[in-house]
Design goal:
Rossmann fold; eight-stranded mixed beta sheet; about 290 residues; about 35% helix; AB_hydrolase_1 (chains A, B); homodimer; AB_hydrolase_fold (chains A, B); hydrolase activity (chains A, B)
Chain lengths: ~290, ~290
Amino acid sequence: MTELDIPSHDGATLETAPTRYVESRTIRFAYRRLGPATGTPLVLLQHFSGNIDAWDPAVVNSLAADRPVIAFDNAGVGRSSGQTPDNVAAMARDAVEFINALGLAEVDLLGFSLGGCVAQQIAAEHGGLVRKLILVATAPRGGEEHLLAVLQDAFSQADVPDPRLPLFFTKSSNSRASGLAFLKRTRVRSDDRDTDNGKAVTDPQAKALITWCATPDPDHEILRAIHQPALVVSGSHDTMLPADNAYAMFKQLRNAQLVLYPDSGHGALFQHHEIFVDHVRTFLDTRSTAA
Amino acid sequence: MTELDIPSHDGATLETAPTRYVESRTIRFAYRRLGPATGTPLVLLQHFSGNIDAWDPAVVNSLAADRPVIAFDNAGVGRSSGQTPDNVAAMARDAVEFINALGLAEVDLLGFSLGGCVAQQIAAEHGGLVRKLILVATAPRGGEEHLLAVLQDAFSQADVPDPRLPLFFTKSSNSRASGLAFLKRTRVRSDDRDTDNGKAVTDPQAKALITWCATPDPDHEILRAIHQPALVVSGSHDTMLPADNAYAMFKQLRNAQLVLYPDSGHGALFQHHEIFVDHVRTFLDTRSTAA
């Protein structure tokens, strides 16, 4: 168990917690910290184009009910300093700098989409730092992605209130209703909101994700280097990083659970947030047994 | 909610509950009933060759903590009268006779292996009777099975204490230890144990399972007829009915969650019994939304 050397703000939520800053050797990182002071912290690794306020409060606050949860902006994103790198390996190095700057000796990782690629890289390279990892709507190195086509399609739809509606949810009425509820939840915070840095972030991030998937890894070197227990999660109709990626990761990882949700897209964790939080909690609270 | 017209035995377990009998028009069914008197009953559909006492008390008793759970012998199995049919459709008819004989208007089904085929058939044909279904270590019609090869391999191993060890568990030390613990749990009950009727059960059951998988269903007629929410579960290394079956069912079912467990075989639900019960409970307790 790791104790965070940060004053506890009991009852703070993603919407109310102050944004904090911590300096590594090269970067000043913005972050928010929720939940109890003790326990293995769960560090969240965000998706392409997302900042701290792009997380779903329904997911983050529920996870923080019984463990420390840390959302942060990686280098160049939101209010963190530095440049957004154009490759996953550098993003992983930056994230480890952040974790080290907080003085955390062991963490759990939840990586969503591009953040899931970063989580795989960190877990493969830093066996001792990562206790367990959760890989959501992501792809293995050499996996299948349709980022640009899906982005182009989403941004061509003039009548949607937010591109995340077509990007993260399916066209069913249930999924769409879940999407609108998700968007509403992400807009509750008004003060001290995180910033959107546009193409300075999204251009290198798109290159990083596309390169990750375009890099063949026939021997699954990254996945086979991951010894930590993993929970792999995807939506049935993820158009950006299809669920076949999740099944392929499950088969190559040494010790993985796979959970797939019905009628859901890239944002399955936000659509099925109550079930997702239950599944994450069950996974993180199970005593680990090596495979 | 359905109230069972059966005296409640608070605290009864699979090991201590009396075996009861109920008569349909043609069959006298043996069963045990656990858990509270109210709530949607969960009816368990057993695997090839198994009787009531082949269920894992760790799974059944935990599930019965907050819902009625009913384990029974289908026609010809254990102490139920009648002949074991050689096809899934007839097994489904017999199971529905049993459910009707108990006067239950709506049930949840948990079908394991051959019992999962029976559960699919019932759910497809009796939309109003089945609220939700859990399909564990099973196959769709036209799916992949290796029953005879795996049985032959298991029974050729002279040094195993029970064929279910190689049939249900992997060769890893963790899985094998889980298997020995499972076998021990199934042997606690000494009085009023269920009977093993040998080839009178296993011959027609083997034919039913093999025929089910040998019957092509290119349009997925059974799966597409299932409108109920489904939880599909499998072990990573199921040698009898491989996990590819589960992924295929997930993709064709209208409203399914998929959960796959690491380092586990056909008996994944017994090896990972604590996590499995958590997942079942989360699934059954979630308010259903149509896809």
